[in-house]
Every structure is written in structure tokens, then in C-alpha cells.
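Our preliminary data section would be incomplete without showing what the modeling component actually yields. Below, a chain of 308 amino acids is followed by its predicted structure, encoded as C-alpha cells that our downstream tools consume directly.
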Amino acid sequence: MLLSSLYVLLGLILLMGASDRFVESAVRLARTLGVSIVLIGALIVGLGTSLPELLVSAIASVDGNLDVAMANVTGSNVANVTLVVGTAAFAAPIMSRTLILRREGVLMLLAVAALAAVLWDGEVFRWEGGLLLGGMVVALVLLIKWSSSDPDGVIELDEDTEAHSVPGEVFIGVAALAVTIFAARLLLNGALDLGERFELGEAFLGVMLGVGTSLPELATTLAAVRRHESDLVIGNVLGSNLFNSLAVAGSAAVAGPGILLDLTRPALVVMLGVVMLAGAFAWNDKRIVRREGIILLLVFLAFTVLSY
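Predicted structure:
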């Protein structure tokens, strides 16, 4: 019990420091390279912080725990939209642009819907995983293409801003990401050890894994909020859910296809519902404000309780 508590405490401390430095490197790279901050958020921050989901789901699938693997993906998607976006909006309004909502936002919705369609019948085939992985390749191509035609999302260097070394920032960013993921693992291990003492079910364990593996997204999102980088927040969530729905779920399906026993259709409906709810909030007045963040956090709390 004491060791698990220490894991949680140390994990939180490392998460806060490493995630802040990771976001700083991401912003410096976007400014130095002259590329869209949304692209950096989706590719570097979003995909990078989704590595825990990939590792956890792939290992669980290979070990024959397909339910845990897919519950991890769905739980992480729900946590990203409710816990991560809700917490960020509670801290400060998240500004959005119509162009991003129409392109990247719709792309994320399609990816989540594709995942729900694959899981809906309760059986996952290897060829379905291959289709999801193919969809990830298409999504990456589209993100890069759209970024090149999005001048409003590019951070320009001014006379008072010093260009940073790209190799140096890449190295520091990768190191900070590694520490962030390690810290999330410490925190998750401590939380899971405490949770097992209460004999939690497999589905709820998957939700806990989804929440735990979303901690890097939460930490980097809060760091981006502190730096007033709304596009980085949006890119982080979009990229993470794209990667979860297509690459993570696809890899798990290819590694260990099978029948789902515990993952329910209501969980898939909730996953789709929260994505559309957050999208409606953002579309309404081009930002997500504190009261909407509170609603998302309450949805997250209800989803967690009902998953028990």
C-alpha cells in the first residue's frame, strides 16, 4: 500500500515537470520549422502521448485479453474527450477554428465511428485490424496535406524570437516524452495495485487502464493551456484519438483477434456520444468554456462509475 502510494506521488511530480518541457519543445519546433501547431500537436504530442495505449493494448491482446485491450482504447478515447478536454476547459477556455473542426474534427469522428463499427458485433477479426491500420496511414497523409494549406496555424518567428536547434529540441522532446510516459506508468501501476485490492472487474480494469494511459495527454494538455496554446490542445486530443482508434485498436486486432465478452455496446455509444458532444460545444461559439468543461467532467465521472 505504501509503495503504491509513493508510485502515485512520484508519478505526479514527474508528469508535471516532463510534460511541461515536452510541450515547450513542441512549440519551439513548430516555430522554428514554420509548420502548423495543430500538426505538431497531432503528430508529435498526440501520437507520442498515445504510446502507452499502444503498448498496453498490444500486450493485453497478445496475452488473450482482448476485452482489456479494447476497453483500454475506448476508455482512453472517452477520457481524452471528457477528462482531458474538460479539465483543460475548466482551467481556461479552449479556442477552436472552424477549419480545424470541419477537417481534423470530422476525421477524428470518422475514426472513432470506424472503431465502434469494428467492435459492435462483439467479434474482432485480423482483417478488420488491417483496415484500421490502413485508415491510420490515410489519416496521416491528410493531416500533413491539410497542414501545408493552413497558414493561420503557423507560428512565425519574429525579430525578438531566437530559432532553436531542431536536433536539440527533438532530443529534449523525446527525452521529456519518455519521462512523461514513465511517470504515467508509475502512477498507473500504483493506482492499479490499489484497485486490485477491491477486486475490480475486467471491464472496469480496462477503463482504469484507459484513464491511466491518458495521463500523458492530460499532463501535456494542461501544460499547453498554461502556455495559451489552444491549437496544441486540440491537436493533442485529435491526434491521440485518431491514433487510439486506428493504430492502437488496429494493432491489437492484428496481434490477437477474438471475441469480446465484457465490452458492451453502451460503452461504444458513450464513446461516440462524447466526441459529438465536445464537437457541438466547440462548434457552438468556436470555443469550449468552463461550464462545458464541467459537463464533460461530469460525463467522465458517470462513465467511470457505471463501468464498475
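The first helix runs from residue 2 to 33. The chain has twelve helices and four strands. Preliminary results of this kind motivate Aim 1 of the renewal.
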